[in-house]
């Protein structure tokens, strides 16, 4: 198929992704959980299709990560403990796959090691503070499974660190999408912990969903451009 035609189709998919994200946010305002879940679980398949149509060079790790996040989103439509744990576990797997791919982008010989250490201290310190606060507010029902909180927080920080180190050591087209995408992921998950353990309302639910949708899109664009 003609590359120009594929690009047009990819932008149509991106437009549909935007509409579905807006629909997701609107259903939060309307407190319509079933309709919200409908929009939410279709976001990752749309991103996979966008990635397939928009970029020439594809990577199996990216598709596996998308699949993991999608199954996690499906499981999280049912808010029971088992599904939440399984959903978060699959999200962890998705992030691990992103981390593995980011590691391959970094050129260690080009790194400033002092700056690397400072970046690591900043991000790991931030998520350590987040974990402590969330643990204090978590109910006894969830405290036994707090290990998932540590894992997700660590992977979020690692994703951000590796994206920044990629900028420093191997600057290429698309790398800033990876940086902003990973940081939006960190913000989204921080908001998720806030909603889960401290205070849940529509405003914070909207912020969580919005930043999560942006993070997923930016990361896919970043990986797609970087692999060209």
From TrEMBL:
Source superkingdom: Bacteria
The Gene Ontology CC terms held by the record are: membrane
Its main localization is: membrane
Keywords associated with the record: Membrane, Transmembrane, Transmembrane helix
- State which residue ranges cross the membrane: 6-26, 38-54, 60-77, 84-106, 112-135, 147-168, 174-198, 210-227
Query: Where, subcellularly, is it found?
Result: Membrane
Its record classes its membrane topology as:
Multi-pass membrane protein
Name the protein family: Belongs to the TMEM86 family.
Protein known as: Lysoplasmalogenase family protein
Give the classification, highest ranks: Bacteria, Bacillati, Bacillota, Tissierellia, Tissierellales
């Amino acid at each position: 198929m003609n590359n120009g035609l594929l690009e047009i189709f990819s932008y149509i998919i991106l437009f549909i992704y935007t509409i579905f994200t807006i629909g997701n946010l609107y259903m939060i305002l309307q407190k319509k959980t079933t309709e919200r879940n409908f929009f939410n679980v279709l976001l990752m398949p749309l991103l996979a299709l966008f990635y397939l149509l928009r970029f020439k060079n594809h990577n199996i790790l990216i598709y596996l990560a998308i699949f993991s996040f999608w199954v996690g989103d499906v499981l999280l439509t049912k808010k029971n403990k088992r599904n939440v744990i399984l959903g978060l576990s699959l999200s962890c797997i998705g992030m691990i796959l992103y981390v593995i791919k980011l590691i391959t982008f970094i050129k260690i010989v080009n790194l400033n090691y002092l700056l690397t250490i400072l970046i690591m201290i900043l991000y790991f310190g931030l998520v350590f503070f987040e974990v402590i606060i969330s643990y204090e507010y978590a109910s006894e029902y969830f405290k036994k499974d707090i290990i998932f909180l540590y894992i997700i927080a660590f992977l979020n920080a690692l994703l951000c660190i590796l994206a920044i180190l990629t900028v420093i050591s191997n600057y290429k087209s698309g790398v800033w999408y990876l940086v902003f995408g990973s940081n939006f992921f960190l913000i989204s998950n921080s908001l998720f912990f806030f909603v889960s353990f401290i205070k849940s309302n529509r405003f914070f639910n909207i912020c969580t969903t919005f930043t999560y949708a942006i993070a997923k899109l930016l990361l896919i664009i970043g990986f797609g451009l970087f692999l060209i």
